[in-house]
Amino acid sequence: MRDLVSGADRMTRLSRVVKSYDVRGLVPDELDPVVAYALGWGFADLMARPSPDGDAGRAVVLGRDMRTSSPALAAAFADGVCTRGLDVVDVGLASSDLLYFAAGSLELPGAMVTASHNPAGWNGLKLCRSGARPVGAASGLDLVRRAAERVLDTAQPLDDRPRGETTRRDLREAYAACLLGLAPGPGHSGAGRPLRVVVDAGNGMAGLTVPAVFARVDVDLVPLYFELDGRFPHHDANPLDPATLRDLQAAVRRHRADVGLAFDGDADRCFVVDDQAGLVSPSAVAALIAVEELAREPGATILHNLICSRALPETIRAHGGRPVRTPVGHSVIKELMGTSGAVFGGEHSGHFYFRDFWCADSGLLAALHVLGALSRADVPLSALVRDLVPYAASGELNTVVSDPAVMVRAVESAFAGQPGVEVDHLDGVSVQHAAWWFNVRPSGTEPVLRVNVEARDSAMMASVRDRVLDLVRRPG
Q1: Which pLDDT belongs to residue 2?
Q2: Which listed residue (69, 70, 95, 116) is catalytic?
Q3: pTM above the 0.85 mark?
Q4: Residue 41 and residue 146: Cα distance in Å, rounded?
């Protein structure tokens, strides 16, 4: 990138793509190799400086997903790191949790080139310190952005540091061994009955990592869309969208499978479909994993974000654990896991975090826990999870509003002070009642309010939901 050309346009783009927790933007309109180079230099600059955690850097481990823009962005990012004087350990094509494994096991800061579940035209970066500790706006990402701005402003930061070098490592086998050591899965170490499992990789990175892990467990694997293809020819790799699960559900029925698994593009999230082709609530998946972890470590602390089902903390308490409610967001949960000693954390978005996996999230590790529990059970998955989420939920409902803060206050004013109602502000506003609860919180990146409602039955949920949405969507 010695021909780097600065410009106000790229400075503006940089401010748009650096979010609260990661980097995300359209390629090439917002994110291109020049911006990626500047971010690589900025990240290396941050990692090269001594920190209270002893991070004084020597190298950065780098992975990338299968998007068509990822090779060029990864090469540019690596060039920026090396120009700043740090080495690059390139693990090549990887899932985000494989990158976290690399950062943890090699004790190096890491960068993953990915846009996760976003459509094909997007790309981005997930950054972490050594030990897979997250880098967000408050923990270094703002400093990376400022350093990258200096790079773009001066065209090329010149100094006399020796240039870093790039080496390549394949960590898939070590990664698979690590996951299976934490959650053995069916037949691994002689436990459990065999299972027929349909996996929809969505042409994303699970197509690389699932075969490496499932080759060691007793499953009859039915693969869907394992070919790595960042154009997503079949459907977006976004299991949050129910439409992307239809092929998986049909395959579960067709093959009479015990379970179906769907991963997002970088495979850090996992969604589960039962033997009847019904979606298993992510809160139920978290409850199932929590029970597994509490059997291994009685009395442990379990984290859950505030839009998880009320049934999740109830299940944790029933099995002797200590539930701790958190705001939404991976960097928040990872930080709290480190300080609280929590053994596991679940988010209703399909992210599942494990203390023994460097407090990082792993869709495949979550899947192994589910498969292990199912293989040891004498009932199908639909029966195993039936009572884990007995309430009716709205799902996340998003509304564009002109002033999210004003709308949040309006909702709170309408409910506060009513008999039996409690209000808190852990993340947006949450209103709790014995028979129902809801949360309204602003998006961190757009003028959108996110509404989640749960109640003891569908009629009550619909009543509360409609009242909240009427307030949120009321003109003026």
Answers
A1: 46
A2: 116
A3: yes
A4: 11
